[in-house]
Amino acid sequence: MAKRLELKFRNELGTIATISLDNPVDPADPVAIKQAMDTIIANNVFVSNGGALVEIDRAQIVDRTVTEIPLSE
Fold first, then answer.
1. Would you state the pLDDT for residue 46?
2. Alpha carbon distance 1, 59 (integer Å)
3. What is the pLDDT at residue 64?
4. Which of 49, 52, 53, 61 would you call most buried, defined as having the most Cβ atoms within 10 angstroms of its Cβ?
C-alpha cells in the first residue's frame, strides 16, 4: 500500500494546483501541515501553470493499493 500526502492550493487563476509528497508521517499533524502550506504561499515557493499559489484549498492523504499480476511468458 502506498500513501501520499496531497497539498492542494488555489492559484491566481482560481484553479487547483497539487503538491504531492510520498510516504507521509503517520499520523499526520494538521497544524504542521497548515503551517507548511502557509509558508509555501507566503514565500511564493512554487508557481503553477495558473500563476502563484494564493490560497489553501485542502490537504489529504491518499492510500493506494497495488497488486501485481504475474504474467507467464
1. 92
2. 19
3. 87
4. 53
Q: What is the pLDDT of residue 65?
A: 86
Question: What is residue 2's predicted lDDT score, i.e. its pLDDT?
Answer: 85
DSSP state of 31: H
Helix, strand or coil, per DSSP, at residue 5: strand
Nearest to 7 by CA among 44, 33, 45, 42: 33
C-alpha cell at 33: 501541515
Strand partners, 19: 7
Query: What is the spatial distance between Cα 63 and Cα 68, in angstroms, rounded to a whole number?
Result: 16
d(CA 53, CA 17): 8
Task: Name residues of the chain where pLDDT drops below 50.
Answer: none
